[in-house]
Amino acid sequence: MKPVKHQLEFLGRHEIDCVIVGGVAATLHGSSIPTTDLDVCYSRTNANLQKLATALQSVHARLRNAPAEVPFILDAETLRKGLNFTFVTDVGDLDLLGEVRGIGYYDEVVKGASTFHVLGFQYKVIALDKLVLAKRTAGRAKDLIAVAELETILDATTRESR
Amino acid sequence: MTLCGLWSLDVCRSWVSLRLVLCPGSDGFAAGCYTVVTMTPEEEDYFLNPPPGSAAARAVEFGIDLTLTLENLRLTPEERLLKLDDHVAGIRWLKVNAVLSPPAQAHADETG
Fold it and tell me: Complex ipTM, two decimals?
């Protein structure tokens, strides 16, 4: 388990075009439920895929839980041919999602996203209502616990702005 | 003003009553601007005494400890992140340093 801070700094340093989703997004929105990996939905433009491949190579990214004999060439072409990847890297576990279930691809995920200024970088973070929807769609027990808390934060926020 | 500034302003409006504090930074508003201000008692009360039928009430029924949520909301996003990392580091430390002893009775049987 590496600090999430390291993975975020990695993305910020390499200027990867992505939206933070999942548990870290929940933390940034105020959730108290801990998480250990970073999930991001990434833009699949050619320029971003190239940047992403170069960045991932620099931290020796490899597929998580894949047998060592499975050939994997980490380049922009491989990223283009795939969609969702789970990596273990020198800076920690990193999940790259081309699509977020319940929301859609990057263009949908980024709509309404908040921008958080942390660790010296600006990060796009999925909007709270979309995060609730994504967690609800995922539907695992841990997601439903998160939904209960996130809906409270969402409700409290909207009550104040009413 | 950048989008970050707009977001911060929005958060401040949502969570902070009256005292809006400009922090140093090129954006005018910077992350952390609401660490120096407080939520109103009404805002805090939503978490501490959830109104019946509210999302907060449902969360409590679900077993969520909203005092932890409230504590997190008092932090800046960066502080929330660092707190998460501290938590993870604590678990990592435990995994390395915790020693599992056999149950006391089993140990007594072995030595007795």
Answer: 0.89
